[in-house]
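Sample pair:
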Amino acid sequence: MRLLSLSKYFLIAKYALSNYLNRENIYPFYASFKITHKCGLRCKFCNVWKENIPDLSTEGVYQVLHQLGQSSIAVVSLEGGDPLMRKDLGEILKYAYAQPFYLFFTTNGHLIDKRPMEEYCKYIDYLHISIDEGHNNLEFFDRLDEFNSFGSEICIQIVVTSDTLDVLEDKIRKIYRAGVRAVVMPATHLKGTEDYYPNPLLFREKILELKKKYKNTLTTPRVFLDNITKNHGCSPSSIIIDSDGGLFYPCRTIGKRLYSFTEGSFLEFLQSPEAIGARDEMKKCSRSCGWYQYFATDAFSSPLSIISSFSPYLFK
C-alpha cells in the first residue's frame, strides 16, 4: 500500500478524533467522484445514465480533487458513468495521484481494450472493475489474470440483485483462484429504476459464508453486513460528487443539492447550519436503502471496520 505524507495522516487523525469527540461523523473520509455521467451501458438497476448532468472541464475536475486533498478525505474513487469515456483521463489521473489520498478507479471494463490501461494504472492505487449480469460482461471473469497484470491492485466489484444472489459463489471462486479481491454490494433501489434489492438477511448470510470459505478475498466489511439489517445503519462518512461538482448531502437518497465543490470551502460547508440539519435528517431516516457507501464507510469511527475492510489487501 502506497504511503501518503505524514501531514495527511495527522490531518486524518485530527478529523477522526473530532468525529469521535462530537459523537458524529461530521467529516467524511471516502469520496466517490463521478467525473462523467456518460456510459455506454444501460444497467437496469442504475439511474446514472438517465441523469442529464454535464461534465466539468479538466480544470474543474482539478479544482474538486484539490479540495478533496486538503480535506479529511482519505480515499477518492473516480467513477461514472464510465470514467474511461473521458478523453482527458490521463491528465486527470496524474493530477489525482499527486494529491494526498488513495486513488480508486471504477469502470465497467467495456472500454478497457481501447485504452492504455497499463499507463493509466501507474496512477491508480486500486482498480475496481464491475463484473456481473447487470453490466453484461461475465466473460471478463476469464480475463482476471490479464487485468491483474496492469500494475494496480485489482478488485472486482459485483452488484447482486434479488435474482443473482444464488449464483454469486461461482464468481467468488474464480476471483479467489485468480488471487484478486472482490467487493460485493446489493443493488440499491434507485429513483427511476425497478426494485432489485436482495433480501438483506439472506445477503448478509451468504457474504459471511463466502468470507469464511474464501479467505482474504471479499473486502465487503462486516460492519456493512451488520448495518443493512438494522432500521438505521448509515452515516455521512462517505460522499458522492456529481460530474458537475455538485453534492447531494447527506446522501443521494434523501439529500438535497446543498453544495458545489467549484464554489466555496468544503470544510466550511460541513460546519454550516444546512449541513448540520442534513445530518440530523439522516439520523432520523429509516429507509435502510442498503447503499453500500453510506452503510460501509464508517471505518474511521471503528478500528474493527478498518481491519475488516483492509485485511484482504494486507494478507494475501
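Residues 158 and 184 are 5 Å apart (CA to CA).
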